[in-house]
Amino acid sequence: EIVLTQSPVTLSLSPGERATLSCRASQSVGNYLAWYQQKPGQAPRLLIYDASHRATGIPARFSGSGSGTDFTLTISSLEPEDFAVYYCQQRYNWPPITFGQGTRLEIK
Amino acid sequence: EVQLVESGGGSVQPGGSLRLSCVASGFTLSAYSMNWVRQAPGKGLEWLSYISSSGTTIYYADSVKGRFTISRDNAKNSLYLQMDSLRAEDTAVYYCARDFLLGAGFDSWGQGALVTVSS
C-alpha cells in the first residue's frame, strides 16, 4: 500500500500570503495524484488532478506540481475562503486508493 | 447540475447492518465508475470501495472486505453500499464519489451520510 505523508500538519498564514503544501509518497505514483479541499461540514472538492491540472472552476491561484514521490500544492495568494483542510490522493498503484492525512490551513 | 445524494445512514448496534444508497442526477450514471469513501469523526478520508461503470470490476479496502458489498443499478441511477457486521470503528460519514473521466481524482461527491455504530 502506498502511504502519502502530508506536511505540515497545520499551516498558519494570513490572507494574501503564499501557501505551499507538500505530499510525499512512499513509492512513485507517477503523476496519478489529486488534491482536494474540504471545509467543515462539507464534502471534499477536487482541486487538482494528475498532479498539475486544475479541475473545472478552480481558481488560477491554485496550482499543483511534482511527479514520482514529491508533490506540492501552491496557493499563490490566500483568500479568506481558502482556509480549510487539504488532502492529497494517489491512484497509481491501486487498490487501495490512498489519501494523505491532511494539512489544516488556518488563519494566522 | 451534477448531484449525488446519499441516504440510509443512521444508528445501529455493533454486529448490525445498514444499506446506504446514492442517487445520481444531472449525468448518466452508467458512464462512470463510482466509489465509496468515509471519514470518521475528526479524522481524514478513507477510500472503501470501487465499482466500474458496468459493475463487472469491484475492489474493496482491506478494512471492509468481506463485510461491505458495493453494487449499482444504472437503470435506477443508483449506487449502494451494503454494510454488515458493523463495528464501532465503522462510525463515520460515508460519501459516494464519482470517478473523474479525464484523470485521477473524484470529481463529484455526495453530501455524506452519517453512520453511527454504538451499543
List keywords for this structure.
heterodimer, A: 108 residues, mainly beta, 7-stranded mixed sheet, 4-stranded antiparallel sheet, 0% helix, 49% strand, B: 119 residues, globular
Report the structural category of chain A: mainly beta
Low-confidence stretches of chain A: none
Structural class of chain B: mainly beta
Separation, N- and C-terminal Cα atoms of chain B? 40 Å
Total of DSSP H or I helical runs spanning 4+ residues of chain A: 0
Distance between the termini of chain A: 35 Å
Which series of helices and strands of chain A comes N to C? EEEEEEEEEEE
What does this structure look like?
The complex is a heterodimer of chains A (108) and B (119). Chain A has 108 residues and is mostly beta strands. Chain A contains no helices and eleven strands. In chain A, the strands form two sheets. In chain A, strands 2, 4, 5, 6, 9, 10 and 11 form a seven-stranded mixed β-sheet that branches. Chain B has 119 residues and is mainly beta. The radius of gyration of chain B is 13 Å and the shape is globular. Chain B has strands at 3-7, 10-12, 18-25, 34-39, 45-51, 58-60, 68-73, 78-83, 92-99, 106-109, 113-117. In chain B, 0% of the residues lie in helices and 51% in strands. The A-B interface holds A 32-34, 36, 38, 43-46, 48-50, 53, 55-56, 87, 89-92, 94-102 and B 35, 44-47, 50, 59-62, 95, 100, 102-107, 109-112.
